[in-house]
Amino acid sequence: MPELTNMEFTLNWGVAGVGMISHDFLTAMADLPTSKHRVIAIAGKDLNRTHRLATLHNISTAYEGYESLAHDNFIDIVFVSVMNLQHYEISKLMLENGKHVLCEKPMGMTYKQTKSLADLAREKKLFLLEGMWSRFFPAYDALEKHISSGGLGEVYHVNVQFGVEINDVERNLMKDLGGGVVMDLGIYMLQLVQFVYKEPPIDIMCTGHLSKTGVDESVSCALKYKDGRTATISAHTRTNMTNKAEITGTNGTIALDYFWCPTVLHISAANNTEWTLPKGKYNYHFHNSAGLSYEIQEVWDCLSKGLLESPKMTLDESILFSKLTDTMRAQLGVLDVVL
């Protein structure tokens, strides 16, 4: 693998997975300079689907299965975008073969899996990032600046709602596919609260509902923090919700619409900041997926500086989130959680 610690290198990407996220990821990457990012190969279980996506995005090599991708010596980094239950297995395969990894969230289904991947990346001195794309939006930088400058005063409460009708999506119908409200939506809410408070909760209490097949389809949690601070998070896969985060301090409240991919920061009725996303060559499957370009560029920025973790989304935070999601799913009664 070529040395990547310089300011004028091209990052050679491989993509593991041919689903909707992979399409959006590739479409977003096309808006970045080709001098920095180039996709070498894509791999999937179904070679016909893999060829179709490769052809659409002008990728020269399509592999059936992931072993060939792992052994392709021209690839520097792999974007892992397979089913949730496969994230650990495929990320581990890539790391073991000397590839840097950007893995869709959740990086692992349990604390044990997530900690294992982090340990492996650190042992092999490879870059590993859980794809918490929210963290790389400019709105999060602006939010951090406003809070740290005292604009909200002392922050005492964070309230987040996230509801979308996805209970008919395959992974949320079958327990063995690794879906569910906590892993699909809840982790986004956790990362925002952690972004604000910068420390883990001292207590968390959750309730919610499971589907007939044992998949968690709703969750509501109260989180307790030091020094009188609290948070409430609620998510649902059977109905739409406000999909807004509100951060309240002694000097007022900041609101983030579409908090997991925000393009507007509402500081007050007369003070809003807005960012514009590029349209992209192809239509996106998901809301504001053009913002995946921020995450892709973060990878390049880190590797150009010789960093093996992103300071905006560290491996220790990924490990913390896995502990919290284990706890949430255990409290909901998802029986396959390993604490």
UniProtKB/TrEMBL annotation:
UniProt keywords, alphabetically: Oxidoreductase
Residue ranges annotated for the Gfo/Idh/MocA-like oxidoreductase N-terminal domain, each copy included: 11-128
Enzyme class: oxidoreductase
Transmembrane segments: none
The keyword Oxidoreductase appears for this protein: yes
UniProt xrefs under InterPro entries: Gfo/Idh/MocA-like_OxRdtase_N, Gfo/Idh/MocA_domain, GFO_IDH_MocA-like_dom
Catalytic activities: D-xylose + NADP(+) = D-xylono-1,5-lactone + NADPH + H(+); (1R,2R)-1,2-dihydrobenzene-1,2-diol + NADP(+) = catechol + NADPH + H(+)
Residue span(s) of domain GFO/IDH/MocA-like oxidoreductase: 142-254
Taxonomy, superkingdom: Eukaryota
Enzyme Commission code(s) on record: 1.1.1.179, 1.3.1.20
Gene Ontology MF annotations: D-xylose 1-dehydrogenase (NADP+) activity; nucleotide binding; trans-1,2-dihydrobenzene-1,2-diol dehydrogenase activity
UniProt xrefs under PANTHER family: OXIDOREDUCTASES (PTHR22604), TRANS-1,2-DIHYDROBENZENE-1,2-DIOL DEHYDROGENASE (PTHR22604:SF105)
Protein family per UniProt: Belongs to the Gfo/Idh/MocA family.
Protein name in the entry: Trans-1,2-dihydrobenzene-1,2-diol dehydrogenase
